[in-house]
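Illustration: dTDP-4-dehydrorhamnose reductase.
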Amino acid sequence: MKILLLGKNGQLGWELQRALAPLGELIALDRHATDFAADLAQPDSLAATVRALQPQVIVNAAAYTAVDKAESEPELARTVNATSPGVLAQAAAEAGAWLLHYSTDYVFDGSGTAARSEDAATAPLNVYGQTKLEGEAAIRASGCRHLILRTSWVYAARGGNFAKTMLRLAGERERLTVIDDQIGAPTGADLLADLSAHMLRQALQQPECAGTYHAVAGGETSWHAYARHVIEWARAHGHELKATDIAAVPSSAFATAAQRPLNSRLSTARLQQVFGLHLPHWQTGVDRMLAEVLGR
Ligand SMILES: NC(=O)C1=CN([C@@H]2O[C@H](COP(=O)(O)OP(=O)(O)OC[C@H]3O[C@@H](n4cnc5c(N)ncnc54)[C@H](OP(=O)(O)O)[C@@H]3O)[C@@H](O)[C@H]2O)C=CC1
Ligand SMILES: Cc1cn([C@H]2C[C@H](O)[C@@H](COP(=O)(O)OP(=O)(O)O[C@H]3O[C@@H](C)C(=O)[C@@H](O)[C@H]3O)O2)c(=O)[nH]c1=O
Ligand SMILES: [Mg+2]
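Result:
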């Protein structure tokens, strides 16, 4: 089996290079690839790549993920997150290939306190979420066999993420202010990549498993409690940090270009039921990532 992976060097793309390797011949590209076009800012070039390589599976880990910047670059965000996934999906439909794609908790408005299921009403609050939602719709409209995994708050040992930002800021400042009224589940790129491989393997045998799934780690937290956990773990493992005051603030007191959902809880019941997979608690993966990053 031939698998084409796009966005190979992002947090998730890097882990997918590992997790997908045993499933078949893996061709992993990033936007700078020269033999085959793989820049999602150039949608017109992508169909030729799929036709030339003829993969049985296309995995798209590339995305425009700068949430605040997307507010001032909506066209580029839309091209990368919606138009190009649509082109890949069309090419997959024509080739009879599967498409594995990723989406986000930010497709929802975050009202209420309940965990959302896959068919809950979407209503993105920001450009990034809107373009990711449009990407989902383009994939469904193409008629290709697909898996769309909606995840949240992704971190990895390799790449940039909130946990690493908190470690850096805690080394530089005595006081941090962190939002405590946005609730969600930090999800490791390693876990998501492993889920992806297991789900793909089953879906290839059971095409009726195609569809959209919420794929996040177990448990829930706020950005503030997540930050505190990361900083306390670092201290407990001998790292000296400046920050003594990790202040909890409401979203209204922390100005950002993009508005973010308050309730990012996603129910993984469907994933667990259809694929029989277990979602470990978020702290297990975060602690493992910290041990790797901080060398303890
Ligand atoms: N990060 C998060 O918190 C969350 C992410 N997701 C989704 O999960 C998926 C993976 O995200 P994650 O790995 O964390 O994101 P990263 O930002 O770590 O990686 C995104 C990758 O996409 C690449 N990329 C950006 N623009 C283009 C382009 N024009 N052409 C080709 N590649 C491009 C980047 O390349 P380069 O390095 O060259 O810029 C980077 O390698 C995405 O679909 C994202 O929307 C969902 C929920 C949360
Ligand atoms: C740096 C910083 C952020 N925050 C807040 C802002 C924001 O609400 C939250 C997280 O900050 P980030 O910049 O990591 O947030 P953000 O980039 O919006 O994270 C999101 O990325 C996209 C790609 C997704 O799909 C989402 O699931 C989610 O992970 O913490 C603070 O409260 N204090 C701080 O010092
Ligand atoms: Mg971010």
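Reading the tokens back as a structure: Residues 67 surround magnesium ion (ligand 3) (CB under 6 Å).
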